[in-house]
Amino acid sequence: MIQISITTNKQTSISVYPLLTNAELTSSGNTAKNQESVSNFLASGEHQGKYGVMRTIYQNNERMMFVGAGDLDKLTLQKLRALAVKTAQKLNKNNIESADIYLTELDIKGASLTDKVQAIAEGFWLGLYTFNVYQTKEKESKTELSSINIVIDGDEAEAKAALDTAKAIASGTIFARNLGNEPGNVCTPEYLGEQAAALSHPKLKTTVMDKAAIEKAGFTALLAVNQGSNKEPRFIVMEYNGAGNNDAPIALVGKGLTFDAGGISIKPAAQMDEMKFDMCGSAAVLGIFKAVTEMNLPINLLGVIPSTENLLGGSAYKPGDIVTTYKGLTIEVLNTDAEGRVILSDALAYAAEQKPAEIIDFATLTGACVIALGGQATGLMGNSDDIKQSLIQSGQKTHDRVWEMPMFEEYQEQIDSKIADIKNTGGREAGTITAACFLSRFVDDIPWAHLDIAGTAWNMKGTDISPVGGATGAGVRLIVDYLQNKVK
Ligand code: BES
Ligand code: MN
Ligand code: ZN
Predict the structure, then answer these.
(1) Active-site residue, from 234, 341, 441, 477
(2) Are residues 132 and 215 in the same domain?
């Protein structure tokens, strides 16, 4: 991660000024306008301030980059964050090592200095993210962007605190992206356990159960899905006592399916490689723990991650099998590819047993959710209007957006089984909702929200703030904001 500092004045010979529609500048840019090269450049009409357009001009040893910000009344924090991404990439591409950034001068409606500094810093850190550890060819040596100064006119302490927050969020998001992008032969259940155990903080205690411990504890649904894999499963439990009291924790549960071939109900070959991302729910949980521990948030958390592969073989679980879960409920397996809900049943039941204040789970659970919402929003379901409303708000604020789907009780009938308590598929209709109905059977009356991140957890084309493609780290910004609001 590059070095980002807060300053109240110019530090380098490269200044980045926002330019609004009709070539309108903000305060520092207007001061620069006294220089002939700047006024000539603006008068030329080459740069009208169109959003995302960037031009650099030179005056003696000074360089000035003008970043188009569009119409002020159309600017949002997300547009600012995405503009920071574009700026970061441009500076990096142009072999610039460090620069002064004047983007906080944009007077965005309803946005505080904290909001703007956070958005800009997140944009720089997340926008420069790459995952190329497996490319062995030496890259041509070039100057890389290594530091920027966010120049502010306002409370320095406030801006520095916002920068610290952004740093924790970015490092949590990058951690989640890295875990997601690692291939399935590296990111195995064992590896996830090691990565979880490596997160260290005086108030964090992590337990990683191996197969023997899982058998002893009775996580039988996880073991059923694991039958077809030669790799051992893991069950990860993380307890963060940030509040320093005995308040019931918020439980975060994440699907850690390190590769989903579908099992005996095998998936088609096309894009099956993308099923290495089927552990992105667990990556979100681990990213959130990383961010929260770096921020020392005074809050109690319980993290629960069931992890296995879903493969095929002579020992694999089969369609028609009936699995008895940790909770005691029985599942008729109609499709071995609906394995996420099966392993989550044990994790949710275990979490509920710890009597948390609430449970939020993260899972790349259904292809149907990708069809319904695409990559623009995470599917939101659950039994608690309070949690759901707060998540919707945090989603709007962070642009890590969620969209609610209904959980009318009539949907529950779709998973009734004739031979067991429930079946693991509810048919083609409302597939995202019936998957959530399945999960709901394991949380009892604990306030609970379910986040189906199947469409948002990765994007092969890249997004405006995850430009290289691959895992996005969806869920991290959302929940860190949600938890920050709990603390307030
Ligand atoms: N991990 C998949 C869901 C998924 C598919 C996420 C594609 C992102 C992209 C999950 O385990 C799965 O296979 N679900 C099935 C359920 C069905 C068999 C009821 C699905 O969505 O097809
Ligand atoms: Mn599956
Ligand atoms: Zn899956």
Answers:
(1) 341
(2) no
198 with 141, same domain: the answer is no
Q: Is 452 in the pocket of ligand 1 (CB under 6 A)?
A: no
Nearest CA to ligand 1 atom 9: 367
The answer to whether 234 is a known catalytic residue is: no
Alpha carbon of 366 to ligand 1 centroid (Å): 4
Separation between Cα atoms, residue 105 and residue 90, nearest integer Å: 20
User: For 80-139, what is each residue's pLDDT tens digit?
Assistant: 999 999 999 999 999 999 999 999 999 999 999 999 999 999 999 999 999 999 999 887
Whichever domain contains 92, its CATH number is: 3.40.220.10
Q: Which atom of ligand 1 is nearest to the CA of 455?
A: 8
Residue among 277, 317, 337, 414 to mutate when testing ligand 1 (max atoms within 8 A of CB): 337
In a domain, 162, yes or no: no
Specify the number of domains making up the chain.
Answer: 2
**Secondary structure string (H, E, C) spanning 54-94:** EEEEEECCEEEEEEEEECHHHCCHHHHHHHHHHHHHHHHHC
The pLDDT assigned to 140 comes to 79
**Please, are residues 319 and 273 in contact by the beta-carbon 8 Å criterion?**
no
Q: Tell me which of 120, 153, 186 is where a domain ends.
A: 153
CB distance 372 to ligand 1 below 6 Å: no
Identify whether residues 142 and 179 lie together within a single domain. no
Tens digits of residue pLDDT in 223-237: 999 999 999 999 999
Helix (H/G/I), strand (E/B), else coil: 309? strand
Residue 488 appears among annotated catalytic residues: no
pLDDT range class, residue 304, cuts 50, 70, 90? very high
> Which pLDDT value is given to residue 233?
99
Classify residue 163: in a domain, yes or no.
no
Query: What is the average pLDDT value for the chain, to the nearest integer?
Result: 98
Q: Are residues 149 and 186 in the same domain?
A: no
Which domain, by its residues, includes 307? 170-487
pTM: 0.98
At residue 141, the pLDDT reads 83
Tokens found for residue 24: 């309108």
- Which pLDDT score is estimated for 216? 98
Q: Is the CB of 424 under 6 A from ligand 1?
A: no
- Distances in Å between the Cα of 92 and the Cα atoms of 86, 95, 96, 132, 368 are 10, 5, 6, 16, 38
Query: Could you tell me if the CB of 473 is within 6 A of ligand 1?
Result: no
Q: What is the mean pLDDT of residues 209-219?
A: 99
Helical segments of 136-279, H only = 156-181, 189-198, 211-217, 220-226
Atom of ligand 1 nearest to the CA of 278: 1
φ, ψ (nearest 5 deg) of residue 10: -60, 135
